[in-house]
Design goal:
- The chain is an alpha+beta fold and about 80 residues long.
- The protein has one helix spanning about 15-20, and strands at about 5, 10, 30, 40, 65-70.
- It is globular, with a radius of gyration of 14 Å.
């Protein structure tokens, strides 16, 4: 069964290959509530614990505070 990246739609033959790819995928996997920018996780952290929006004009920070994973966002319907 192929494993597909949700961000860029590339497919991989093993789950490990997909996990390794996620570390370098250039498609955005995080989104900032403050500015609305979407970006890759590696651009928002240097230590894997503290996250800050990479947009220089934005003060958004913190996973679950201002920054959210795309997978965790639900679309609201009226």
């Amino acid at each position: 069964m192929p494993h597909t990246c949700r961000n860029c739609k590339r497919t991989f033959s093993t789950e490990l290959e997909l996990e390794l790819h996620r570390d370098t995928c250039s498609a955005g996997e995080l989104i900032c509530d403050d500015c609305g920018e979407r970006f890759a996780e590696r651009t928002a952290t240097t230590d894997g614990w503290h996250y800050r929006c990479p947009n220089e004009d934005c003060d958004g920070e913190g996973i679950g505070d201002d920054i959210h994973r795309i997978d965790d966002i639900r679309v609201e319907t009226n």
